[in-house]
From TrEMBL:
Residues 26-150 form the YbaK/aminoacyl-tRNA synthetase-associated domain. This is YbaK/prolyl-tRNA synthetase associated domain-containing protein. GO terms for molecular function: aminoacyl-tRNA deacylase activity; aminoacyl-tRNA ligase activity. It comes from the Bacteria. Keywords: Aminoacyl-tRNA synthetase, Ligase. The keyword ATP-binding does not apply. Gene3D superfamilies: YbaK/aminoacyl-tRNA synthetase-associated domain.
């Protein structure tokens, strides 16, 4: 498994941006539900980060880092409409790791690669506190959604839909 300097790069970026954040050490965990329990907050306060492959035509493929609340899922139809794409699907693990510069389960809601476009749902940037794994399975970070938006500069679009559990309660 390749080593990534993504954690150090994130901390340098946040410190240089004068952002208030909190680091949280915990048992190694990469699934949203499990790490939320370790950190002690509801999944709605987590940033779930998914690398997508977006095919706009036969020859053009883009990669998008979609960020949605932890209790929601990425609405692939919304992403397809947003990019006027023919196809949207999940990126393969190797490409996701290369572009996100993080192993699965530790992908940040930040993009440090010009080939990875960052799109966040409005519910993410509206959070008073937003939690996510800090490019490590054993450390997370909490900061305000407003500070996240200011530093990460995502394209903010409605890309989340209820999870199957939420849809069943509706």
């Amino acid at each position: 498994m390749p080593e990534h300097d993504t954690y150090e790069r994130l901390i340098e970026l946040l410190d240089a941006s004068s952002v208030d954040y909190r680091l949280i050490d915990h048992e190694p965990e990469g699934t949203t539900e499990s790490v939320c329990a370790l950190r002690g907050h509801p999944a709605s306060e987590a940033a779930k980060c998914i690398v997508l492959r977006v095919r706009t035509d036969r020859k053009t493929t883009r990669h998008v880092l979609a960020v949605v609340p932890g209790d929601r899922r990425v609405d692939l139809d919304a992403v397809r409409a947003l990019f006027a794409a023919r196809y949207v699907g999940f990126s393969d693990a190797e490409t996701a790791e290369r572009l996100a510069r993080a192993i699965p389960g530790t992908v940040l809601p930040f993009s440090f690669d010009p080939d990875l476009e960052l799109v966040a749902d409005p519910a993410v940037v509206a959070r008073p506190l937003l939690y996510f794994n800090a490019a490590r399975l054993d450390r997370s970070l909490a900061l305000s959604g407003a500070d996240y938006a200011r530093v990460a500069r995502p394209r903010v679009e409605h890309i989340a839909s209820p999870s199957p559990v939420q849809a069943g309660r509706a």
